[in-house]
Design goal:
Layout (H helix, E strand, L loop, with lengths): L7 E5 L9 H6 L10 E6 L2 E4 L2 E9 L2 E9 L11 E10 H4 L4 E13 L4 E7 L7 E10 L9 E15 L3 E12 L10 E10 L1
Antiparallel strand pairs: 1-8, 2-3, 2-12, 4-5, 5-6, 6-9, 7-8, 7-10, 10-11, 11-12
């Protein structure tokens, strides 16, 4: 839903319990080991890499949503250690269509948790592609968490290159820079990413 001032506001539907269960998130992560590209978050004033156990996930109903995740450790997830970081990208399904696309991301995302769900509001800048509805960064961990960031603002800039784009498959590269505070427990400061992905329904 878009307001007169150009801001997009929507509730966030659960994505296979990804956003509410850090344990389930890490158990779903794919093969261990660092991969091409990088995902990093500022933690305690220093950059921390999340280049292990990479995973990408795609969902599509009224919106097309792409989630790109990584872990800061290559250790067995059964040990219940480590942190994870995920980039959430929301696109307008109708405008996205099919075929190769290069989409610009530029705006401010506001992510809020209420008693029953999470919701986002996105204020795009003029250079933002209309297909891009929002993007934000979330962090989770096994260790005792920090107080949960329930209401955060993130300034996001980047580019999404879709080499393959169909109703059931996205493949390409995501470049992102985020200034602000990550959403979720074990939060961090800014984030940067340049990731290849291949995601299917």
């Amino acid at each position: 839903m878009q307001s007169r001032d150009g801001m997009t506001s929507n509730p966030i539907r659960p994505l296979r319990r990804l956003s509410s269960a850090p344990v389930a998130l890490l158990l779903l992560l794919a093969a261990c080991g660092a991969e091409d590209g990088t995902l990093r978050v500022i933690r305690d004033g220093k950059w921390k890499d999340f280049d292990h156990q990479r995973r990408s996930e795609l969902s599509a109903d009224e919106e097309t949503r792409l989630v790109l995740c990584g872990s800061d450790t290559g250790r067995n997830v059964a040990e219940d250690v480590g942190r994870s970081a995920c980039i959430h990208v929301v696109m307008d399904k109708a405008l996205l269509g099919t075929g190769p696309r290069t989409l610009e991301l530029a705006g401010t995302s506001y992510v809020k948790k209420t008693e029953t769900l999470r919701s986002y509001t996105f204020k795009p800048r003029v250079e933002n592609s209309p297909e891009m509805k929002a993007a934000w960064v979330q962090t989770s961990c096994f260790e005792p968490p920090d107080p949960v960031s329930l209401d955060v603002m993130q300034v996001v800039n980047g580019r999404l290159v879709l080499e393959e784009n169909s109703a059931t498959h996205l493949r390409g590269r995501m470049r992102l820079k985020m200034e602000g505070v990550t959403y979720g427990p074990c939060y961090g400061g800014g984030a940067e990413a340049e990731l290849d992905f291949d995601a299917s329904l």
